[in-house]
Write a structure and sequence with these properties.
Layout: H1 2-35, H2 41-51, H3 53-90, H4 96-99, H5 105-114, H6 118-127, H7 134-147, H8 149-189, H9 193-253
């Protein structure tokens, strides 16, 4: 089960954002070469990739994974803060969950109560008064993975999606929105209209994706938190019921 988790989270949360960053850096290299007079920089890179496809693929995969690991170290919390800024300052949202930091303790309590599952919060407070602590949240994820394959798949899917979104926004924030304007300006000045249009489209799509993810990121991360708290509640209830049944059986045998 741990290997399955690593497979899902590694692919969506590490490799895909890392590949996106690696591809963007290749475009940045092409722009850099063009600035210094190599007008056919894109063609040269493509020709090299075709001529040494095995080596290029191996290098690209390795760099993508390495960059993805680096992104994973910083992405979720920084993107959460950026999403909060976007929603409060630009979209003028005033809901509690928009302003609250991860793991959104107060707003999650309200969410569980409105959905008729207030006992989950009562249970969590009895289990650990500091259940809002991020370290305890991560511990609960590991416990779910160890105790329940079915519930762990749901947690893995939620975590992988959050990592994918945060990794993508990290690339767009630090790399994509810089490479695209540089490429656009460079190829407009060089009179290469096809590449200018390509980079204009790249910039437009990057900005749209950036805004869409910022709009929905905290909502998706709240779903991950809800999945973890609900799962840990179900696991402990199941363990308690199993313990009660075993005690009843021992009493009847005696």
């Amino acid at each position: 089960m741990q290997s399955e988790r690593l497979g899902i989270v590694t692919f969506f949360g590490i490799f895909i954002p890392g590949s996106y960053l690696a591809g963007t850096l290749v475009l940045g290299l092409a722009c850099f070469l063009a600035i210094f007079g190599i007008d056919n920089s894109h063609g040269l890179i493509i020709a090299y990739a075709k001529g040494s496809s095995a080596l290029f693929t191996a290098i690209f995969i390795f760099i993508s994974y390495l960059l993805g690991v680096v992104i994973r170290l910083y992405a979720p919390d920084s993107v959460d803060s950026l999403s909060t800024f976007y929603l409060t300052k630009i979209r003028k949202r005033k809901e509690l969950w928009v302003k609250e930091p991860f793991p959104y303790t107060k707003s999650m309590q309200s969410r569980f109560e409105k959905s008729g599952m207030g006992e989950v919060i009562v249970f969590l407070k009895k289990l650990n008064k500091e259940f809002s602590n991020k370290s305890y949240f991560n511990y609960c994820k590991l416990l779910i993975i160890a105790k329940s394959p079915a519930l762990s798949r749901q947690v893995q899917q939620a975590e992988a999606l959050v990592r994918f979104l945060s990794g993508t926004i990290w690339v767009l924030r630090y790399i994509g929105i810089w490479v695209a304007p540089i490429g656009l300006i460079t190829f407009i000045l060089k009179g290469n209209h096809k590449l200018a249009v390509f980079y204009a489209g790249f910039l437009f799509v990057s900005l749209i994706v950036l805004l869409l993810i910022l709009e929905r990121f905290k909502y998706q991360r709240r779903k991950e938190v809800q999945t973890v708290w609900s799962s840990i509640y179900l696991i402990f209830n199941e363990l308690q019921d199993k313990h009660s049944v075993e005690n009843d059986q021992k009493s009847s045998d005696s």
